[in-house]
Each structure stands twice: as C-alpha cells, then as structure tokens.
Amino acid sequence: MPGENLSRDEARERAELLSVDGYEVVLDIRSAVDEAEPAEGPRTFRSVTTIRFRAAAPGTSTFADLIAPSVNTVTLNGHVLDAAAVFDGSRIALDGLAAENVLVVDANCAYSRTGEGLHRFVDPEDGEIYLYTQYEPADARRVYANFEQPDLKAPYRFEVSAPEGWQVWSNGAEESREAGVWRFAETAPISTYITCVVAGPYHYVTDSYTRGDLTIPLGAMCRKGLAKHFDSDDVFLVTKQGFDLFHEIFDYPYPFGKYDQAFVPEYNLGAMENPGMVTFREEYIFRGKVTQASYERRANVILHEMAHMWFGDLVTMKWWDDLWLKESFADFMGSFGLVEATRFDQAWVTFANSRKSWAYRADQLPSTHPITADIRDLEDAKLNFDGITYAKGAAVLKQLVAYVGREAFLEGARRYFKANAYGNTTLDDLLSVLAEVSGRDMAEWSRAWLQTAGVNVLTPVITCDAAGHVTELAVVQEGEELRPHRVAVGLYRLESDGTLVRYARADADVAGARTVVAELAGTERPDLVLVNDEDLTYCKIRFDEASLATLRAHLGDLTDPLARALSWSALWNLTRDGLMPARDFVSLVLAHAGRESDVGVLQMLHGQALTSVTHYAAPDWREQGGRELAAGALHELRLAEPGSEHQLTWARFFAASAATEGDFQLLLGLLEGSARIDGLDVDQELRWDFLLPLAAHGAVDEGALGAELARDDTASGKRHQVRCLAARPSQAVKDQAWTAVVESDALSNALVEATIAGMQQSSQRGLLAAYAGRYFEVIERVWTERSIQIAMDVVKGLYPSLQGDAATLDATDAWLSAHADAAPALRRLVLESRDDLARALAARGGAARAGIYRAAGLRGPPPHPPPTNAGRGCFFQPVRRLRTGPGRARGLLRAAASRTSARSRARAPHRQSNARTLAPACPDLSTGV
User: Fold this and answer.
1) Percentage helix, strand, coil, to 5, in the chain?
2) Of 128, 159, 273, 305, which residue is the catalytic one?
3) Which of 318, 325, 322 is nearest to 152 (CA)?
4) What is the pTM of this model?
5) Rounded Cα distance, 457 and 764, in Å
6) CA angle 40, 45, 50 (to 5 degrees)
C-alpha cells in the first residue's frame, strides 16, 4: 500500500492534537447503475464530507485521510486550498489550524471490487446492483475524508442520493427520504471503521425486540435472489436470545437504537460489527441442506457481532495493539452466549475442537505474538485479525473466568462499560477493574497470559502400585513461558457395556514445571487420563502410553462429547508436531469418526484427515492414504442414517477424498440420477461439491461446467463454476488461472478467491510445479500494486506448499534472505507459509522413524525422572505404530460396530441401527447404493 500506511506514532500525535466534534457525509451513488463504464479509470461516486474538529495547539499542522481518484475541492475554515498541492492520493495536508476548524472535502471516490471501501456487486442472476461498505481497519477513507484511527471518535450524519427504486441503510435510523435522497439520524460517537452504508434493491424483513421500556427495531436483508432461501425467523430468534442474555449480564442497555443485519455478496470477512448496521457474508444464507454445525456457526457469528456493540463499539481500543479488547471478548461471548441462551448448548465442544485449533496453529508460527500485540502500523493491524487475537484470546478469557469466577468477570465487564462508555481504552483500563472486583493480582496474570507468546504443553505423569491404585499423578508443563493454569484432571475407565466414562475428577492449579495432583492419589488406575478436562485452560495436552492405547481402541466409546473433542484435538496436535505419523491419525479417523455424534467435530476430523494425507503423510504412502480415506468415507456414507446431517457430511467428505475411477463413476451417477443413496438429496450445492473433484480429475469438461452454470445461473453458481474451471488438469488452464489473479485486476475479490482455490489441487503437483519459481518473482510486485486484501489472498493462496519438498523450502529462504527490506507484512505471510511447509516436512520425517518420547511429547529426557512403577509401565514408552491398511481399518470399523451398545447407539442416532457390514467397494450403479 504505497503511501497508504499509517503508523502508531503518527496516530498518537494526531490524537494528542485533535478532538473531533462531528462528521456530515453526503454521498451520491446514483452512478452505481450507469450502464456505460467510464472511458478510463474506475467508476466513481461523489463524496462530500464536512468535519468539525478542534486543535489543542492552534497554528500547527495535521492531515486528513482520503484514498480517491480525484479531489474537486478542499476548504479549511472557509479558505479554498489548492487540491493538487495538498492531496497526495492518500492524505490531505492541513496547515495553520485554528482552535476550532471546519474542513470540507469534495471528492470523487471509487467503487470497490475487492471488498474494501464501497463494494459494488452486479448480480448475474437478474442484473441488479448491490452496494455495501467494509472498512476495518482503515478503509472508510476510500469513501469519505476522515481522521482514520479508532481513538478519534465522533458523531456522524449520513445523507445518500440513491437510484430510483433502491433502499438505503446506515448506522443511524432513517429520518427522511425525498426524491431519492435518504437522511439518517446522528449516531452516538463511534470510530470511522464501524461507520456503514448499505444500498440497493435488497429484500428486507423487519421485526422488533422489547425488554421492559426498551424497544429495538430489528431488520434483516439479503439480495432478492436469495430471498427464497432466507430463514429470517431463525436469524431474529438468535438475535432476540442474544439481546436477552447480554442485557441481563451486562446491565447496560443496547446503545445504538435500531439493529439491522445485512447479508451481503462477495464479503471478505465473516461479519462486521457496525453499530446498528451489522454486515455478514451472504454464505450464511443456506441455498441447500446444511448441518446443525452450519446453523451453530451462523448463530455464533450473530452473537459475536452483537457482543461487539458493547466490546468494541461502545468501548473501543485506542490503537490496534489492543484489538484483543474487542475480538477476544466477542469470540468468547459468541460461544458463551450460544450455551447460555440458545439451542446450541454444546458450543464449547465446537470451541475446543475448532476455534482453539486455529489458535494452536497461529501460536506456533514464527509470527506468533502476545495477545496484546505490538502493532506498528495499519499493515500490521490487517494481519493481526488472527487465531491469537480471536481464539487464543477467547480461550484465555475462559481461563480468566475459571481464575476469578464468573460473577467477578461479569461484574468487571459491567463496570468497564459504565466507566468508559463512548470512549477508548487500553489493557490497563480493563485490568484495573478486574483487579478491583476479583481481588486478584491481575498484573501477574496479564504478564503470563496476555503479554507473552506461545502455547504450553501439559503431560500427565502417573504411577500406580501393584494393587492397581494411583500412587501419584503429576502434570508436567513445558514451554518457553511456564504459566499458571487452572485445570480439571479427569480419570476415565472402560465400563462393562463398552463405554468409556469419567469416574474421578480433580481441579488443580498447575504452576511451574511439575505439579502433583494430590487429590487423585489412591484412586483406581485409569484407562485414560485427560488433562484439561472440560477445557478450562489454553494448552496442548499429551497422553501417557496407556491412555493413548485406550484412545486407539476406544476413542469412539467416550460418552462425553467434550472429552472426545479434546482427545481428537490432542491427537491432531500430536500429528502436526510430528509425534504421531499421519497414517496413524488417518487410521484413528477411519476407526472412530463414524461414531462421532457431534457433526461439527466430524467435519473438522474430515478436514484434518485430508490435510494429513495431503501434507503430512510420507509421499510413498500418500496415494494409498487417499484411497483409504475415500473407501472409509464411502463405507460410512452407506451406514449413515438416510437423510441425516451425518449422511450429508460423509457425502461431502467422500467427494473431497474421491480417488479411484469407481469413486468418480459413483459421483457421476449421483449427479445424473443413475445412482442413488437412500435419503441423500443431491441439491444444487451438493452438485457443485461433486463436480469439483470430477473437474480436477478430468471427468467433466468445460461444457459440462457451463451446463451446470446454466442450471444455477446465480452469483453462487458463478463462483462454483470458476473454481471448477480452474481445477481442471491442464497446463493451459493453470496458466489462465495464474494470469487472471496475478497479472490482471479484472476479477472481483470473490472470483480471485475461487480461482486460487480451484487452481491449487493436491492431485496436480506436477502441473503446479511450473509456478513455484514464478511465485517468488511476482509477490513483491503484487504486494505493491494490488489492494492489501487481494495481495494477501495471492501471497497466501499461491504459495507452492503442494510441492512439499526441500527445494521449495530453500527457495523460500533464498527469497527471504534477498528481500530483507520487503514490507514486514509481506515477509510475515511468506514466513508463515514457510513454517507450514517445514512442519509438514518434519512430520513426514517423524512418520519414517519412531520417536521414543512421542507419547509424552517431550523433546528430550523428562525433567523429573519417574518414580519406580510397581504396577504399570506407562511413562516414556515408545508409541507403537498403529497397524494400518485397508484390512486393518475395516477390522477396526467392524469391531467398533460390534461393540455398539444401546447406549452408544443413542449417542449416535446418525448411524443406522442395523450396522450393516462393509458393502462392496464398487457399487452397482444400475441398482443404487
């Protein structure tokens, strides 16, 4: 972003100088519907902004922010300035400030196709045009002149001239509309990045929320083409449940009047917390059948954004260093709210299995950072919307709740809102109020958890006597920073009915390198020790040898869904860390995933299994591993209850892992109707899921994909078709895809994303090899010439990770060495991709040799040698390799099926009760499956 960056020091100096009293923003967007494209340059709209502000030191200078193709006039305190002299493309120089100032900027701003600023979308289905804004962290300056930093809050008034037949929404309530001019009420003081305008012929539904004397008008909208799929009743239900909960626990009324929620096309994010005008990606409106995990994910996002109305909008961080003050809290409150107020009462299972997986990966990258990060400038800020700021921060807040108590935590939040309403804060503001209500030393807690990076590893060390009783159970902690952990340690045993249940639990405060859990001494020897049971803290956990053996045989017999999710998460971390061969993890998935009742966990396991085969498996086993995954997926697809969400999930996984001619013939048969699986509705979205692997393996051509687009001539259909076209196994196709995203800016953000996803197919490593060298030649130019969002997509998406070899690692190191002065944000993205590749290479090395410390996950001898073990050899034993192969996997599946009791069937209603034996590998397409 040449010239478009803003440093923290510049923002601090400007905040010390200025106080902003208000904005009046007048936009004329009637040009959005002009049929003719401009002869040169981008399509533009007129933006006239009036800013009233004060300067602490009259006579000094500052600057306003604006990114626009041209500026018509700049007037400061009644004096017309030379626009060509004061505007450099991203800043407007303002000299000779008075104590009180009025700045008027008349500019021509550009519509966006990258999802940054005022995005313009043309619906291919009906030709209608839709607009919406997206600014975080600093793209409001693409729409109107401003002081683009979060701590210069001000009230806003928006006026918008729109085409005939359109509707317009903004943060404030509509005050009037006349002759196509819409005027909106003044907002409360808010930051630039959460102002918003949405305009177009949207389908709009209304409702209201009432609590005592408070009434909040509710609205929800989407494109007209999606109206038939829009389940607004469920959106409003979760919205009202969220308002009920947050009003009760925050004791501060929602402060922004109305509450509209817009589901918009080609959105880069999940959602954005614009007060009174929340925006979401329209993929949260489901065009076909989806699982409850999808509804839970949407509900989580609704509550996440609602929590921001307090954490982030009412009280906002001073600078992006404290981004976590809003994102960690909102991420935590999303899951907390689901459990407390909605039908999704197992949301902590999803959090443990999915959100924390994101955090663990981010926290082990070379770019890891403390939750309170060092954000030097806007480019740093853009990259810090990551797994640490969101998911690790939320996990640490969950630990904080266990540390100070739920009521103290919520009382701290209440006092924080009331003390800082409509203001800006730093970490110290929050810590002071939490210390006040809890009586705890928050400074030490903050130093350990918020101001240091990295993830700890907790490992159980257990000794038993000859009678089969625990003599000592200790927790060993590793990590560069040893932190205080409040954990629950659970002991599990196999019951006579084959289930694996907890029979003992102890809370413990783990501190230092080794902590003895005295309360568990004398208990019966467990079959499984689960450190961090109930997922109270943020850590990776390991298993002793006996526990790992139990999980190999009985993971599917764990009755508690959260315990299963934590076990799966730990096994995945073992795989990523090179301590468990990828083929062993795949075998565990084949053996036990079919009995997983939580469909969100199941979907996560499918993705992890594919990643294991694609990146972590030894190359000489990769092809076999892919065939085993496809065979296992087809087996479970046949066993799944007809019409169930598990059947749908296994169908998608089968398509994603399809590897043989028989697999592709079945997919074709399901598309054409010559094959069927009882209860499986192959709707339009599932058709595209099936077409992608068929396109990637050359089983369907461009004509077939064109015919499918004619069947689904919608925005979603176009994205799917573009992805499938780029997936075809042809060098010419790959060249075309490369040119479209690297050498041209004609594609919108959504189609850039679809093209990259289609191009990068794991079955096409040979075809993609030609672009490994070219990648390093172009990325600095791409970073310089393209918007930061598109540049990020290209740099991350086209990294040659699928080459998966030392040569690519060497090429990456050579680029980093030769480009030490490249933009730090660009170097960070390359470093992160390099780390993923290095981890994959290390994992493959681990698959070829058995590490003697794999069970405990230690890099060397134990810090404390274990005492004499009279009754159980369970510590620091080599992990025995799981015998794999189709025969072994099928045997494990049959054994699991035969052990299924009435109780376990009740936990897994998605599987048919007759538990059929493995069907023939090649289906008879003429008679169905």
Assistant:
1) 45, 20, 35
2) 305
3) 318
4) 0.90
5) 37
6) 135
